Amino acid sequence: MDFSWVLDPNVLIGFITLLVLELVLGIDNLVFVAIVANKAKPEYRDFARISGLSLAIVMRIIMLALASYLMSMTKPLFTIFNIEFSFKDILMIAGGLFLIYKATTELHEKIDEQVQYTDSYQAKIDYTPVGIVILQIVLLDAVFSIDSVITAVGMVNHITIAMVAVTVAMIFIIIGSKYLTEFINKHPTVVILCLGFLLLIGLSLILEGFHIEVPKGYIYAAILFSIMIEVLNQISSKNRKENAYTSVSWRRRTIDSVLGMMGIRESILASATKNGEFIEDQSVFEDNEKHMIRSVLTLAEKPIESIMTPRMEIEKLNISKPIEEQRNDLKDNPFSRLIVVGKAGIEEPLGYISKKDILTELLESEKYDINKLIKQPLFIPETATVLTALELFRNSPSDIGLVVDEFGTILGLVSMKDIMESIAGEFPEEYEQTELPSIQTNPDKSITVEGSLDYDQLTQIIHIPPLPEDSEFHSVAGLIMEELQQIPNIGDSIEYYGYTFEVLEKNGQKIERVKIKPYTKESK
């Protein structure tokens, strides 16, 4: 068999020209593949993308082998309103309609998407089976490849050259699809732009099926202009983020950098544009490990007020009461340590007492003297951070601390357990097991939290920005009062970074339970 034609310069020029054309004609296909591949589960996306495009190579080679049949697809099959329709026209119209349908549904999903909470407070996303994703890639590639196959057949005399050129072009497309998919994942607004491109391409396919020629130059010019605008938008967005980042304290920036190096990027710049969407974290760390690392790194800036028990909720033993009442209080109170007060109440605490010490006294002498068992607590200034309080506890024999203001007024109580819970999460006692959890999911895809839930802990559940350093509140209840500038009533709500916060329960003036759900127009 004579293969001397391979060395012909005209063949090489034809091959290079055809390769470039195939790459240009494959751009629209590449955009579609990048979007469709994201519908599969994260661990299957690369497999779906590579498998779909690999099968598409096989399909294009088969179509090239059937080149004569494809060329005959332009013969009219029937006529409607003086318009002749061939099999190619029908395929173009069907492909265009499918492309418009697919792009429209994707746009609707992106614009109106909502978060579905699961028991682990992570987003529940409806993924498309990987087989369906591969099938969509192959079928749409068949529609997109008709022009490129016919172009290949018309440009070269040897079908082998066309097959090689198409194969090489598809290999470049497979490689490029990975980077395009990663780019789209990092820039959500680009998805909307790409879906707009698909609508435009779908419309052009339908018009072409009706023999209405739309110069490709117009379409590519519109796409190029849109891309230039999006590039400017991305540069502007990057500059805004950099300016916002530099306005954050050096400590917060350091924390974000450390977490980033560990694969736990803390979303300092999280905003409402995410509409409640949870970012997938590919970190090798477990959720509880990531939470603990974040908590440890933020101890130095977390105020002591964020973890203390308010003075109104401090459990007390009043020794000015009769002995029998004191015994009943000790028996009925579930806490192991109580603040001891006299007639002056919590304003002048005498110290604290441990039930273990009382038990020891009873076992040894069958009686006890409260006054001899009283221990002095640690006094912590209200300006202290959790890290400062930890250091104070380290140098003190006390495991109970009272938070005081500049005038010595008792503001709240802090224990070593409170500090440990701020790092590792809650350690519920037996009597707390029957209480409602501090965070719970609801059937209507919302979550209900305690009003006293620490704001920093809430940022680990939903995407809201961290508190500014000069913030005067540290809890969910404080956030609501800060936004409303008044004490809310049951049923009052606020809108905050894409979420609606609604007060469900109150105890006096204290906010007990708050319902949080992604904000939608229907939630007004």
How far apart are the termini?
76 Å
What order do the strands of the largest sheet run in, or round the barrel if closed? 10-11-14-13-12
* Helix content range: 40-55%
Q: Which structural category fits the helices and strands?
A: alpha+beta
Number of domains: 3
Q: Number of helical runs?
A: 18
* Mean pLDDT across every amino acid position: 75
Our Rg estimate from Cα atoms comes to 34 Å
Overall geometry: elongated
> Low-confidence parts, pLDDT < 50 over ≥5 residues?
114-124, 266-285
Oligomer type: single chain
Strand segment count: 14
Biggest beta sheet summary? 5 strands, antiparallel
What fraction of the residues are assigned to beta strands by DSSP?
5-15%
Provide an overview of this structure:
The protein is an alpha+beta fold. The protein has three domains: 4-214, no CATH class; 304-430, Roll (CBS-domain), CATH 3.10.580.10; 436-523, Uridine Diphospho-n-acetylenolpyruvylglucosamine Reductase, domain 3. The chain contains 18 helices and 14 strands. The strands form four sheets. Strands 10-11-14-13-12 form a five-stranded antiparallel beta sheet, with helices on one face. The chain has a four-stranded mixed beta sheet with strand order 3-9-8-7. Strands 4-5-6 form a three-stranded mixed beta sheet. Helix 12 links the parallel strand 4 and strand 5 (337-341). Helix 6 crosses helix 7 (159-186). The protein starts with 8 loop residues before the first helix and ends in a 6-residue tail after the last strand.
